[in-house]
Amino acid sequence: MSTSNRVAIQDLYPPDLAHCFGCGRNNPSGHHLKSFAEDGEVVTRFTPADHEISIPGFVYGGLLASLADCHAMATATFASQLAAGRRLGDGPAPRFVTAALRLDYLKPTPLGVELEIRGHVTERSEKKAVVAVTISAAGAITVRAEVVAVRLPKSMERV
Amino acid sequence: MSTSNRVAIQDLYPPDLAHCFGCGRNNPSGHHLKSFAEDGEVVTRFTPADHEISIPGFVYGGLLASLADCHAMATATFASQLAAGRRLGDGPAPRFVTAALRLDYLKPTPLGVELEIRGHVTERSEKKAVVAVTISAAGAITVRAEVVAVRLPKSMERV
Predict the structure, then answer these.
(1) d(CA A25, CA A34)
(2) Of the candidates A132, A107, A129, A135, the residue with the CA atom closest to the CA atom of residue A119
(3) pLDDT value of position B5
(4) Percent helix, percent strand, percent coil in chain B, to nearest 5
(5) Which residue from B24, B27, B55 is facing A97, i.e. has the nearest CB?
(6) Are A98 and B61 in contact (CB < 8 Å)?
(7) Which of A38, A89, B75, B99 could form a disulfide with B148 if both were Cys (CB 3.0 to 4.6 A apart)?
(8) pLDDT digits over B26-74, tens only?
(9) Which of B69, B95, B105 lies closest to A61 in CB terms?
(10) This prediction's pTM
(11) Whole-number Cα distances in Å, A3 to A6, A37, A82, A128, B28
């Protein structure tokens, strides 16, 4: 079975849980990151704005952390659906939140080019997933991240 | 000697290296985080905007990563100056950049309250510092971070 699917994973989050600044379709001020399943991995592309800068010429590390974080949550959602034998779009997608985020900035990430962010799950249980993420610019990996995602706890559901 | 000083550490960064989205005074679109030395620790306070949201009611984790990151760099700068026997404001402050960022989100961080972010250096050499950071909301620590800061490498200086 091909796991390719051109539905953005974040667009399947329940509408009351789709306000995230990084990836929520219901946040008019946010980044609207859209992650897609591509043959077993989850991929997104994002071009930082000129003001999302650290040192002149390079992307702000806080933005890179944000991108890795939101993309990892989408990757966890995808893996959870796949493990349940469901396709993306078969009912509401489970929402994950971040328990831990670990980033290594391997080299400076140049500003002014499209970044490619790839994620895959390295460990999972029903309630938790560990996601490996890379961020690449112009074909070189500049950031590696490991992100621990947990199913949204009831204590965070106010809606 | 008291180490208290009401000069914001980020305001001592060289002007050509003060464009960071998180804390640069020369970035009109940024957060303008200002970190202050307070008796051996470095402290800042920041109230996230309503749109800096993850799940309704809670702060966006990517923003928390950004705050920890910029604050850690300021903490590294402060420790570096102190170790050199200099006071903040005695000449330009050394600029650090992030090599690694590790965050544990201990509990959800509520939106709508001022956050307190505290940092101190746990290990340092001339070129590197390891910084422990906590983020607290309403008196409870919600995030712990460990950040590896390195002196700005020549390869990142384009100015």
Answers:
(1) 9
(2) A132
(3) 53
(4) 20, 35, 45
(5) B55
(6) yes
(7) B99
(8) 999 999 999 999 988 999 999 999 999 999 999 999 999 999 999 999 9
(9) B69
(10) 0.93
(11) 10, 7, 8, 21, 43
